[in-house]
Write a structure and sequence with these properties.
heterodimer; A: 3-stranded antiparallel beta sheet; globular; B: two-stranded antiparallel ribbon; 13 helices
């Protein structure tokens, strides 16, 4: 698994990755736009308002779309087939790219409820946010 | 707002795509010069009217492409441009060239896309490893490096399959309908000797029996990268008069760029061609029913299907019925990608987008040979870059 590319937090995005390490999910919110924002940015998208603040969200959401990849999207995933590549829409609005775990490909349906799975990689100091069908 | 329709494609070049490199290895600036000379020869004019060029960058230098090309060609220019729109680059280049001509900046503009990565090699400086990230950037600070690549979300197959999956859950999905797009285009390729799949007819059953690469997309519904290259000369009416070809006037265009990764699309099922096509048809002041040939960017069959809907050729969500109930071949009632499209003509890298410009122009010039659509006077051309994230539309017409 360690040959897979790991995210490298930036000064702006660090609070998001820190929250994942704590098995919480904090994303940005723009009070002026009354909208949550993902991924982390320096200014609010659309309005470019300088009002982004960090808020905890539950992380629960629905499966917006997915695909079952029987061929690796790149060499580091050649031992991780099938890839269950997914887009989850959080209940708070934004969407996030992720992978589905703890599920068979045949179980997956667009619109199904999903919940976060925090995957820790201590050697990299990173926790990735994957998803599984909601209990 | 818009074009007056006073700039025309007057010459073109489109190399036959080859699956393996078979031509002499050439640097991209060399390919640029060779393509330019071929397109000028095709138009039957010399280089003296050329005073503009549009490229997508050159492989030998990551900056100063217009100046490097101007110097290499020995042609000073009034307008030099780099367009970075993936598969929409060609359509984006053509409308920019038309604008430069109509503004009076340029008499003739070279619009070339070298399409072979078979470059001369150096024993002293081995080619850099291009890595696996492709159209995604794995550089520090890139959103893709941080939020996509760690989850394996890279390349094109998976994100296009995600679009198709979302489409299926919203509107339904008929695998035989998307397969028919590939089959009809293959029929067109079988009437086009330069097509990489010339002489290799396929059936719907063949498509459905080909490996499922990213569910629901089969292998025969995906493009295959080839070596080639293509380009056009865009010129004003005065130069067009001297060309040996019937001028192909650029009457309308539109362009829309809305995201990089589909995860962040406002609505994944309303592609940017909606706005681009609306703008283009409005500018040209024609209706969809006046289009004789549609050349739709076809990296995957789902791209064609959604582009037909979003460009307004059929109702949203009814694309499957539309392609099933129309003959999409050059003989049919809705001629689509009449030279085979990239799926069956071949995708010569970034030059793949130029295939659709050449397809439309060739039909209007009346040079499509066995695949010629009778009395073709109007073509709709689309470009599509990224994951249906940046799209452009052109309306081309004869006199």
């Amino acid at each position: 698994m360690t040959n897979k590319p790991m995210p490298e937090p930036t000064p702006v995005s660090a609070p998001f990755w820190q929250s994942l390490r704590e098995h919480r999910i904090r994303i940005q919110y723009s009070p002026a736009a009354e909208q949550y924002v993902f991924y982390p940015r320096i200014l609010a998208p659309r309005t470019l308002a300088d009002d982004l603040e960090w808020r905890d969200i539950s992380g629960h959401g629905t499966l917006y779309t997915f695909t079952v990849g029987d061929r690796p999207t790149a060499p580091p995933w050649s031992d991780s087939l099938p890839q269950l590549l997914a887009v989850v829409e959080w209940d708070e609005g934004p969407r996030v790219s992720t992978e589905i775990v703890n599920a068979q490909p045949g179980e997956l349906k667009v619109g199904m409820r999903v919940q976060p799975v925090f995957c820790d990689y201590p050697d990299d100091g990173i926790t990735l946010l994957r998803y599984e069908p909601e209990n | 707002m818009g074009l007056r329709g006073e700039a025309a494609i007057i010459g073109m070049v489109e190399l036959a795509p080859h699956r393996k490199p078979t031509r002499t290895p050439r640097f991209s600036i060399e390919q640029w010069a060779l393509l330019s000379a071929s397109a000028l020869a095709d138009a039957g004019i010399d280089a003296s009217s050329v005073n503009g060029l549009i490229s997508s960058g050159i492989s030998e230098s990551d900056k100063f492409a217009p100046a490097t090309l101007s110097e290499y060609l020995g042609i000073p220019i009034n307008y030099g441009e780099v367009v970075d729109l993936g598969g929409a680059t060609a359509a984006g280049m053509v409308w920019r060239a038309a604008v430069a001509v109509e503004l009076g900046l340029c008499d003739s503009v070279l619009v070339m896309l070298p399409g072979s990565r078979d470059f001369p090699t150096s024993s002293r400086r081995p080619a850099a490893d291009r890595g696996y990230s492709g159209a995604s950037s794995n550089n520090f600070g890139s959103p893709q490096a941080e939020f996509e690549i760690p989850y394996g979300n890279l390349g094109q197959n998976a994100p296009y399959a995600q679009i198709a999956r979302r489409y299926a859950s919203t509107f339904g999905y008929d695998p035989r309908a998307t397969a028919k797009i590939a089959v009809d285009q293959r029929t067109n390729a079988c009437a086009t000797p330069d097509a990489v799949f010339y002489g290799k007819a396929i059936t719907v059953e063949d498509v459905l029996a080909s490996p499922m690469v990213a569910d629901p997309i089969h292998m025969l519904e995906m493009v295959m990268t080839c070596h080639g290259g293509a380009g056009v000369i865009v010129a004003n009416a005065e130069v067009a008069k001297r060309s040996r070809n019937r001028p192909v006037w650029i009457k309308g265009f539109g362009e829309r760029i809305s995201y990089k990764t589909p995860t962040y699309a406002e609505d994944l099922l309303r592609s940017p061609i909606s706005q681009a096509a609306q703008t283009a048809f409005g500018m040209a002041a024609i209706g969809r029913d006046e289009v004789d040939v549609a050349s739709i960017y076809d990296c995957y069959t789902i791209t064609v299907l959604m582009s037909l809907e979003d460009a307004g050729f059929c109702e949203k969500g009814k694309g499957m019925e539309f392609v099933s109930s129309h003959d999409l071949t050059f003989r049919g009632d809705f001629p689509l990608n009449t030279a085979g499209g990239q799926l069956s003509f071949g995708q010569a890298g970034i030059a793949g987008g130029m295939h659709h410009v050449c397809d439309g122009a060739r039909q209007i010039m009346g040079r499509a040979g066995a695949a010629q659509v009778p009395d073709c006077n109007t073509a709709f051309v689309s470009g599509n870059g990224g994951i249906m994230s940046e799209q452009a539309a052109l309306i081309l017409q004869g006199d």
